Predict the structure.
Amino acid sequence: MAQVFCHLAKKTCRILGFLVKSMEQQNFLNQSDIEKLSQLLCLSKKSTNRQALCFRIGLDYTKLPFMNENTESDFFLLLVNYLNGIEAKEALCKLCCDELIPVFTAGKNARFLSNIAEKLDCSRKPNPNDLKDKIPIPSPSSHIFIFLHNTFNELAKNKLIAGGVIIIFCLSGYMFYKQNLLPNNSNTIEQTPSPILDYSSLEKLLSQKDWEGADQETTNIMFSLSNRRSEIRTDDIENFSCQVLDKIDKLWRNASKDHFGFSIQNKIWQQEREQNPFETAVGWSRNSQFIENNPDLKIFSLDAPKGHLPTVITLVDRGYPRSMGEIERKFFTHEANCRLMSYSSSN
């Protein structure tokens, strides 16, 4: 058994080493590039006919799960993330060079697009033999591959870190084997069960249009996801369960007819991209006052600005030095990635 494991560990390390080495030769986009590129696509008004856009860049739009269910900003963010995840360099080049560069001909946007084209090596003409099935449609589990690919792609930029990750991965595998698979092993691993959440109170409050009570109940649920149970810190955000965020969002959206909810707030954030304009748009900031310090700014009715509720994000790092702009960016990036994985897994 030990020999079999050692053989598998060595084989895994060789595979991971090959992945890192091959990814060092790729120049795909980081998260900042993806967000900026999707923002420019939205500004260019290229989504007036999404089907035609997909056809021009070589995508079969009938197989895209996010084709018709999102706003322009959502659609472009999901599209660029998707193309980047499946290594669709030719499609990304067409988006950059054929769709955007003719629109943004000067200024910082033109320089950004020029850098993206250089990063993707868009000037290199593809080998016709390489174009066949260049853009595969992922299987239901391929969002896992996309996540792993993007992770290793970032790690591969630093050989030392990438090598350390490979060593840690192999050592972790050995420790798992030693603790769980060796006979007569007395060590056990105690697993902390995931919290069992009850949404019935939130559903009832929302059905009764008790927006204030629903806002507080949402805060209680989110607190239960935090290790501290009575507050939320910035470090907790990336550990928020995608299923919980999706459930809460759907309950708010259904009760308010798409007036409130996390994804509604995210759409506004994607449009504004800065703290002050966003908080003003959703009614969290008014006359230089912030909603946390002045509860009177909260409006518990459908007369409130779109995306005003729930307000739980405003409580992150309450009582600590903080940057609300960074908190909002981190939360909405995580929420968008959750929806991306949900779309990929449902396809």
About this structure: The two ends are 38 Å apart (CA to CA). The beta strands are 285-286, 289-290. The CA atoms of residues 48 and 72 lie 9 Å apart. The first helix runs from residue 2 to 23.
